[in-house]
Amino acid sequence: MSHLRLATFHAGLRINEVHVDQSVVVGRRDPRKGDPPPVALHRTPTETRLIVADVRQKEMSRQWMEVCPAEAFAFEIKNLHEHCPVVIVGDQEIPPGDTRRFDDEALVELGGRLTLRIEAVDASGMGSASYRSLESLPLVPGGQGYVEHTAAIGQFAQSEGQEVNKMLQLALQVVQESVGSNAFFQKCASAAAEMVDLDRTVVLLRGEAAESDKLPVESEPESGWFQVAHYSRGEASPGNDRGPISTTLLKRVRETCLTVIHQPKTGWMGGSNSADANPAGANAAGANAADDDADRFAPSLQSVQCAVASPILNAEHQVIGVIYGDRTICAGGSFTTGISDMEATLIEILAGALAGGLARRNQERIRNSLAEFFSPKVADQLVSDPQLMEAKEIDVTALFCDIRKFSSVTEKLGPRKAIEWINDVMTELSQCVIDSDGVLVNYMGDEVFAMWGAPGDQRDHANRAIACAKSMLGAIERLRQRWNDVLPQKFGAGVGINTGPALVGNVGSRQKFQYGPLGNTVNLSSRLQSATKQLGVACLAGESTVRSAGCTDQCRRLAKLSVVGIEDNINVYEITLHADENWRRLKVEYEQALDGFERGRFEASAECIETLLIDYPQDRPSRDLLERARAQLNEPSKDFDGILTLTKK
User: Fold this and answer.
1) If we measure between CA atoms, which residue out of 65, 78, 69 comes closest to residue 128?
2) Where does a domain end: 343, 365, 387?
3) Residue 414 has pLDDT above 50, yes or no
4) What are phi and psi of 395, to 5 degrees?
5) Are residues 574 and 593 in the same domain?
6) Domain enclosing residue 641, as ranges
7) Total-model pTM
8) Which residues cross the membrane (predicted)?
9) Which of 365, 399, 415 is the endpoint of a domain?
C-alpha cells in the first residue's frame, strides 16, 4: 500500500504536512468531540482525522471526505458529504457519495483560500517515480503567490546575489514587454533558457487560449497544446528537432496545476550521489532511468536529462498554458546537474508574468466589447466581477426613446445624408445613457432601448433614468439647431420610462449577445413611449418610477391610463426639461382640475381648465382634459371611472 503525504496550504503557503499509511477522514473541527484546533492530525481508537477547518466554516462537514491509500503510488478519495461535491483543482468534482482513484497526487479545494495536496510517496518520503512538484502553488493573475516566491528568492540572493540579480533582470524584461506583441512569448522562452540554463524552452497554450488570442501558432499537437514560441540552444535550432515534448508531463501539470520537475529516481544527474559515480556508472544509471521512464511515461523523455514545466493559470486556477524547458543528455552520455527548486521557481515567476499579461489582454478585450453596451464604469465592474452578468430577477428602470418624424426626415435628406443624421442623433442619445451609467440594450430602427439597475447595484436607477431622459430632450434641442440649415422642420423625440421587476440577462442568442430585461415592466415602458404621441408630451414616466425617484413635486400627473396589453391601470407623469415657475403653476392647476374630473366634478374641472388655457393655450393635455370634461357634461357615463383608455400600442 502507498504511503501518503498530506500538505495543507493557505493562499499558496504550506502551513501543515503529515505522513500517513492508513485511511484519513478530512473535515472541520467539532470541539464538543474533543477535536484540536486546525490544522492537526487527530487519532482516535476508531479513526484518524485531519482537521483542516474551524467550526465556523459551516460549508464543510466534520466528515467531509476520506483519503484511502491504494497500491502502486495511488490513493482514493471518497466524498462523505451528503450534498456538496469535493472539488479537485483541474476542473474535476467528486459528487456526494462517489469515490475516485488518483495516481501520484491531487490538489483539493477546501474553501477559504485553503487547499490540500495529497501525494503518494515511498516509505522514505521520496516522491514517486522521477516526477516531483514544487511545494508552493504557481502564480495566478491577481493572486497571493508572489509573497512566497519573493521570500524564496530573497533567501537565495543572500548567497548568490549577482547571479539572482541577473536572473531577475531577465524576468523584468519579460514583464515589461508588451503582451500585445508576438515578441512577448519569444522573449519569455529565451529568458527562461538563459535564467535556468536550459537547452530548450517552449511556450505552449491550450487550443482555446491560442485561438481566442489569435496567436501565431507554430505547431498543433494532437493533445490540444499549441506551441506559440520556442528557444533552442546548440545545433538543433528548430525547437522540435530535439524531439517531442512529453504529453505525460503536460498532462501532469494540467491535472495538478503545479510546476512539475522531471528527473530520474537515481543519483545519475548530479549532486552528492553523482559526484562519486564514474562515467560508466553514470551512463548505466542514466540508461536504466531512461528505460524506466520509457516504460512508464513516454519515449519523448529518453534523451532528456531533466525537464521542468510550469503552468500558466487563469483567474479560475485553470491551466491555459505551460512554460516547458529541458536539458538534454550531452554528447558521450555525460550529465550535468538537475533542476533545483529555485530554478523551477524562476520559471514559475515567468509563467506568472505571462499569465498576468494574458489576463490583462483578455480583460482589455472584454472591456472593449462591453463598451458597446455599458459605460466605462459599469464595464470595469463587469470585468472585475463577471458574475454580475448572470441571469436574475431584479427591479430595474427601462427607457425607450423614439425619434419623431423620422420617416419624413430621412426621405427629405436622401440616403447618404440620412445616415449621417441618424448617426449624429443616435450618438447623442447613446451618450446620454452612458453618462448616466445605463445599459444600451438595443437599437430598433429609430428607437433607443436602455436600462438601469443592472448588472451592478444601482439603488438610484429611477433617478438615473429620469436624468437621462432630460439629457435626451436637451440633446434633441441641440440637434435641431445643428441641423437647422438642412432640416428646417422640427423633429423631436418621445420617451417612455417605467420601473419594476424584470428578468435580466442575455436576451439575445448564442450568435449575438444582448444584455437586457424582459417582462411587463419593459412592455409598459414601451407603451408609455407610444402614449407620448396620444397625450402630446415629450416624456412619460410610470408612477413607480416617479415614486422611486421621489420627485412627484417635479413631475405633472397627466391621467390614469388603461394601456393596450397591460392589465393594471397606472398613473402617468410628464417629465419636462424646463420645470420653471410657469410650468410649476401649470402642474398645480392642471392636477387640481384632473382631481376634480376623476371625482366626477366635471363642471368645476372644465372651468379650471378653461382659465388655465388662457395662459397656456398650447398645452395639449389641458385641451384633452377639457374635451373629456365637456363630453361627460353632455353625455354622462353610467360607469365613469376617470380612466383614459388608449386604443393604440
Assistant:
1) 69
2) 365
3) yes
4) -75, 130
5) no
6) 580-649
7) 0.54
8) none
9) 365
